[in-house]
Amino acid sequence: MDGETAQKDNQQNDFRAPKDRYGIVYFCFVMVGAGFLTPWTSYIAAFDYFFYYYQERFPTVSVIIPISYLITTFFISIVNVFLVSKVNVHERITFGYVMFVLSLLTIPLLDVCIYNCSIPVVAGFYITLLSVAAIGVGSGGRRTPKLNVCV
């Protein structure tokens, strides 16, 4: 048995990763990272905007928005553990990016509606929380729990 184990160890040590001459793998990982972090970063960058609109009614807006994102991402990641073998990875990635685009379109449309259509600020805040939760759903759905990586 020890001889077989030593032979397997030697085979694993002889394995050499293929060279990435053109940096394609690096570029793919940068794009995956940007795709995963950009949705959340867009809301973090707009905190002054949200604080301006919602500070009177919701003084803890700087806490509520991140918590809504983190909670939805956490629970969707747990659900994703059970769905990873049932849903294709391409469908999960597409779903995540669609959720991101839809939620990013929500805020400018909401801004127009608050000024022109007289939507109450409270309703705008809850719609904002739903769009942040949609980003959390998309981010959690893109994770691949069996491989322990994000795609």
Quick take:
The protein is mostly helical and 151 residues long. The chain is 77% helix and 3% strand.
**Arithmetic mean pLDDT:** 77
Tell me the domain tally.
1
Discrete helix count: 6
Low-confidence stretches: none
Shape from CA axes?
A: elongated
Q: Which structural category fits the helices and strands?
A: mainly alpha
- Topology as a string of helices (H) and strands (E): HHHHHHEE
Largest sheet: 2 strands, antiparallel
Beta strand count: 2
Helical fraction: over 70%
Q: State Rg.
A: 21 Å
- N- to C-terminal separation? 39 Å
- Please state roughly what percent of the residues sit in beta strands, choosing from under 5%, 5-15%, 15-25%, 25-35%, 35-45% or over 45%: under 5%
Strand order of the largest sheet: 1-2
Comma- or semicolon-separated keywords:
single chain; 2 strands; 6 helices; 77% helix; two-stranded antiparallel sheet; mainly alpha; 151 residues
Task: Give the SSE layout.
Blueprint: H1 2-14, H2 24-45, H3 47-54, H4 61-83, H5 89-116, H6 121-142, E1 143-144, E2 149-150
Antiparallel strand pairs: 1-2
Helix pairs in contact: 2-6, 4-6, 5-6
Question: What can you see in these coordinates?
Answer:
- The protein is mainly α and 151 residues long.
- The chain has one domain (2-150).
- Helix content is 77%, strand content 3%.
- It contains 6 helices and 2 strands.
- The chain has helices spanning 2-14, 24-45, 47-54, 61-83, 89-116, 121-142, and strands spanning 143-144, 149-150.
- Strands 1-2 form a two-stranded antiparallel sheet.
- A hairpin with a 4-residue loop joins strand 1 and strand 2.
- Helix 2 (24-45) packs antiparallel against helix 6 (121-142) and helix 4 runs parallel beside helix 6.
- The chain is elongated.
- The model has no long low-confidence stretch (mean pLDDT 77).
